[in-house]
Specification:
Elements lengths: L1 E9 L6 E9 L2 H33 L8 H17 L5 E4 L2 E4 L9 H7 L3 E4 H8 L7
Antiparallel strand pairs: 1-2, 1-5, 3-4
Helix pairs in contact: 1-2
């Protein structure tokens, strides 16, 4: 096992964040595959979550703001049951560790999301060089 650093960016302007995570993995390729799998698992779960939430809304959400208390109570009960059985996912799980999701996960292709986030995987020595300040030119 070797230690690798994963770096990427999320957010824009005032909410811009640079993420750095350290993982032990067999290789860069194995870590990259694990991140790909985490991306796919997140998208699959969110798709099912959205479909399930949509079904609850279609079946139980009152159609009129003047609906009776009984209708709103039933809708809120079903919504509560849904949230208890389907927690909202906000992160990726990579080798059992939680990392922040990339921007645009649900609205663009995986490779585009990785590219937009500037995802990079570095070995320890590569990362040291990556963060080392440049020498002043004389």
């Amino acid at each position: 096992m070797e230690t690798f650093f994963v770096t990427y960016n999320t957010g824009e302007y005032d909410s811009y964040y640079e993420h750095v995570y350290a993982f032990d993995a067999e290789s860069k390729e194995a870590l990259y595959v694990e991140i790909h799998d985490a991306f796919d698992a997140y998208v699959e779960y969110q798709t099912k979550y959205r479909e399930g939430r949509k079904q609850i809304d279609e079946q139980y959400r009152p159609k009129s703001p003047n609906a009776g208390e009984k209708q709103f109570k039933k809708y809120n009960e079903k919504l509560k049951e849904f949230f208890e059985t389907h927690p909202y996912a906000t992160d990726f799980v990579v080798f059992g560790y939680i990392i922040s999701q990339f921007d645009d996960v649900m609205i663009c292709e995986k490779d585009d999301a990785f590219s937009n986030a500037c995802l990079e995987i570095h070995s320890v020595s590569e990362y040291i060089e990556f963060v080392r300040p440049q020498k002043k030119k004389t």
